[in-house]
Amino acid sequence: MEKCSHQSCSKEKQEWLPIFDCNDIARHPWCVHCGVVKNISGDRFYKLGYWMNVLSKIANRYSLKQVQKRNIAKELASHELFNDDYCIDCSAQKTIFINIVKRYCKLNTNCIESFIY
Question: 93, 104, 114, 115: least CB-packed within 10 angstroms?
Answer without folding.
Answer: 114
